[in-house]
Amino acid sequence: MSWIKVVGMGPGEHEMMTEQALAALDEADVIIGYTVYLELLGERFSGKELLSTPMKQEVERCRMCLEKASSGRKTAMICSGDAGIYGMASLMIELAEEYGMTDQIEIIPGITAASSGAAVLGAPLNHDFCVISLSDLLTPWELIEKRLRAAAEGDFAIAIYNPSSRKRHDYLQKACDILLETVSPDRACGYVRNIGREGTEHTVCSLAELRDTSVDMFTTVFIGNSKSRIIGDRLVTPRGYII
Amino acid sequence: MSWIKVVGMGPGEHEMMTEQALAALDEADVIIGYTVYLELLGERFSGKELLSTPMKQEVERCRMCLEKASSGRKTAMICSGDAGIYGMASLMIELAEEYGMTDQIEIIPGITAASSGAAVLGAPLNHDFCVISLSDLLTPWELIEKRLRAAAEGDFAIAIYNPSSRKRHDYLQKACDILLETVSPDRACGYVRNIGREGTEHTVCSLAELRDTSVDMFTTVFIGNSKSRIIGDRLVTPRGYII
């Protein structure tokens, strides 16, 4: 049996990792991940063999992990947030099939931005919700549009990941325009920047205001459902208790 | 300023809590929560003032928390999973408005069953997904049906919370029948029982098989999207990398 773990490290700081995740990284001989995440690990893991590949070489990074583990090294792949939410868990299991190692991959969950961002904003996801990424690198934009329309149709609260990038600076605006086809412009919304890192900032606003806001790639956006409201500087989606 | 934190404790065991959550409970004078969760805390916090109210008295429990904090005691409200996903975060902020304390409530996120259950199953939520609770205690069943239809329409992966209870033994079956209106009976699915506690069990199956399965209230159910597949005993929703 190989020792191979895919570890969700949460938003970044150690205190937002689970004890299970920290223990896995303590035990690992090799830690593999995107360079920025390796840097977030800091001093505590500086004695390990730390390996990376450039961005967009996720397949190569996962193969590197499987090869290292096959050679007998305890190998951990780190992902920001949760390993299984836009993380490397699925690709690792898919590739492990080639190596006959699917049953040897252990997934260790982490706090995803839907949870950590919601905590900063208040409680925007405290009822049924959707998580949608606006990145069309791996997903056709038409499917993203379809999901935005379905989320609005179902009156879900929504967490939006990857709302922007250098090449996709107007995607949040496009997404808001799709929601505005059926959702009121005064729908309660909010967004959080730099979750769990230095300089965390949060803002509450209406959907109409969000449409005209520029956010960067370090931002997670939250759209309330029809019952959500802004209380002070918090965004709250009620669970339904009569108070 | 009062000291008042709403803490997500994850599925149960300490090792699945974040360091931030454990530190908050270590610092608290008073810990309030549903009795079962207080018991899960164990020895480490037995020196604290531990308070509870019976089930369904969530409003009273939150008021108790706000009163204790107002009286100057460092008070933590615990929730299973994430504080802001079907947890007490929203109700606490709503009630805190009456006390002029909305800006004093700190929410500490935890690992929700969507993440912890997904990790056991493999990677069922590794693309856009919805979280839907089948509990109609606080939500009209018609709205739950509408959301299930919207989730299927949007080809989301789905995590289903509260799939069953003594009074709602056929709700998962009803939910599957709604999905089966548009989704293929061989859609890849799975479920996990007793996540993060002793006797964790997971099963993969088709949607047709899931429809005829009885699950209990300690189970979280996962429905794949149209690209999901079963690999060995894991349920995997690909992110879209070409391999």
Descriptive report:
The structure is a homodimer of 243-residue chains. With 243 residues, chain A is α/β, with parallel strands linked by helices. Helices cover 30% and strands 23% of the residues of chain A. The first copy, chain A, contains 8 helices and 13 strands. Chain A has helices at residues 19-27, 35-41, 58-70, 89-96, 113-121, 141-153, 171-179, 207-211; strands spanning 4-8, 30-32, 49-51, 75-79, 105-108, 122-123, 129-133, 157-161, 188-193, 201-206, 219-223, 229-231, 234-236. In chain A, the strands form 3 sheets. Chain A has a 5-stranded parallel β-sheet, with helices on both faces. In chain A, a hairpin with a 2-residue loop joins β12 (229-231) and β13 (234-236). In chain A, α3 (58-70) packs across α4. The N and C termini of chain A lie far apart (54 Å). The interface between A and B is large, with 77 and 77 residues. β7 (129-133) of chain A pairs antiparallel with β7 of chain B.
What is the percent of helical residues of chain A? Answer: 25-40%
Q: How many strands appear in the DSSP assignment of chain A? A: 13
Give the H and E element order of chain A. Answer: EHEHEHEHEHEEHEHEEHEEE
For the sheet with most strands of chain A, the description reads: 5 strands, parallel
Low-confidence stretches of chain A: none
**Largest inter-chain interface?**
A-B, 77 and 77 residues
Strand content of chain A: 15-25%
SS-based structural class of chain A? alpha/beta
Shape of chain A: elongated
Mean pLDDT of chain A: 96
Number of helices of chain A: 8
Quick description:
The first copy, chain A, has helices spanning 19-27, 35-41, 58-70, 89-96, 113-121, 141-153, 171-179, 207-211; strands spanning 4-8, 30-32, 49-51, 75-79, 105-108, 122-123, 129-133, 157-161, 188-193, 201-206, 219-223, 229-231, 234-236.
